[in-house]
Design a protein that fits this description.
The chain has one domain: Alpha-Beta Barrel (TIM Barrel). The protein contains 14 helices and 11 strands. The strands form 2 sheets. A 9-stranded parallel sheet has the order 8-7-6-5-4-3-2-1-9. Strand 3, helix 4 and strand 4 form a beta-alpha-beta unit. The protein starts with a helix and ends in a 6-residue tail after the last helix. The protein binds zinc ion (ZN).
Length: 356
């Protein structure tokens, strides 16, 4: 009897330690586990979004971008939300390229970024308009490896402030609307033809965008760099893995690209699972959720966060609004979930450079 009891206990322990409920989070854990959404945009003084974040146990990083409703307003809103909810909302300032051709642009930019950092900005956003919109006085496109950015990048490196870099776009951007992989991209580029590169064949190509970003990173190896939207390498975890291997001071956020990971998981779940395990210190949860007047309801925000949680924590059969077909949740170990939802954001935005 004693021996049988011992075996039952041993079996129970084994199940618990390598696959039982103890190793994984469940739906019920969602509100209990502290989390960070490291890529949101708060375009309103309304605090509905912040209240939902509190209910769902999220901290938010709101990122200012040089696009409507205006960079200055977004930065002011970021500072204001941070001041009202210092434990709940952090903010990232943004680089302006409006006066790039002015000879005093570097000094004026550094002065502005310094003001933002003093106001509490934990990162600075660089936007895709570099490479897709910005031109020099001769009318040539300016890419991010242009030497004029170096002084600003050295300033941020010296301050220990990371850059959130959105360079290039998803590969879908270079395809006609009907050939795009993701419904979400089809919707976005229908509304923003100015950024739909298929319609602008004379603009720098996808590969030129990525190559310019990589040359900039080579020049600034000490810069802490967060590649927004899976570093625009959303289409293949192997390619993204090679990039992360090449640049140890680079991490990526998943904002608006979780569906690309799900699409790949539909074809080869083990490959995507392995990617998360191997790069568990370099991946940050983010959604690109935008809070604005007449924006999504708290219920919508909550449900979107829950869908992502199900993908990372369960092995349920799931669907995405972005593409046809089903995929199985990754069911990552708790330790990995805690990193992508919390500890990586804390370390990459506030902590030491990547430890190798
Ligand atoms: Zn964004």
């Amino acid at each position: 009897m004693q021996k049988g009891l011992y075996h039952i206990c041993l079996l129970g322990w084994l199940l618990c330690s390598c696959g039982g409920n103890g190793a994984y989070y469940t739906t019920e854990d969602f509100a209990r586990v502290p989390k960070t959404d490291a890529h949101v945009h708060m375009y309103t003084a309304d605090t509905t979004f912040v209240h939902q974040a509190r209910q769902d146990n999220f901290r938010l990083l709101t990122i200012a971008v040089e696009e409507p409703p205006g960079m200055a307003l977004q930065e002011q809103l970021g500072i204001a939300h941070h001041q009202h909810y210092p434990e709940r909302v952090a903010f990232a300032g943004t680089l302006s390229i409006a006066n790039w051709n002015n000879p005093h642009w570097p000094e004026a930019t550094i002065s502005h970024l310094d003001t933002m950092i003093r106001a509490g900005a934990i990162a600075i956003k660089f936007y895709k308009t570099i490479g897709m919109e910005l031109k020099d006085e001769a009318g040539n496109f300016v890419m991010i490896d242009h030497p004029r950015f170096d002084t600003v990048l050295r300033f941020l490196t010296g301050k220990g402030i990371p850059v959130i870099g959105h360079f290039g776009e998803p590969k879908d951007c270079w395809l006609p609307l009907e050939q795009m992989q993701m419904n979400s991209n089809r919707k976005y580029y229908s509304r923003h033809p100015e950024f739909h590169m298929y319609a602008h064949p004379s603009y720098p190509s996808y590969h030129e965008q990525i190559a310019a970003r990589d040359r900039m990173l080579q020049k600034h190896p000490q810069l802490r760099f967060i590649g927004a939207h899976l570093g625009s390498l959303e289409w293949d975890t192997d390619t993204l893995a090679a990039c992360l291997d090449k640049f140890p001071n680079m991490a990526v956020d998943m904002a608006a690209r979780i569906s690309d990971l799900q699409f790949q998981a539909m074809k080869d779940r083990q490959k995507v699972y392995g990617f998360f395990i191997r790069y568990q210190d370099r991946l940050l949860y983010g959604t690109d959720r935008t809070a604005e007047d007449d924006g999504p309801t708290p219920q919508f925000i909550h449900e979107a966060w829950m869908r992502d949680w199900a993908f990372f924590t369960s092995k349920d059969t799931l669907r995405s609004p972005s593409f046809e077909g089903v995929f199985t949740g990754l069911q990552l170990p708790k330790t990995v979930v805690d990193k992508i939802y919390r500890y990586n954001a804390e370390r990459w935005f506030k902590g030491r450079p990547q430890e190798q």
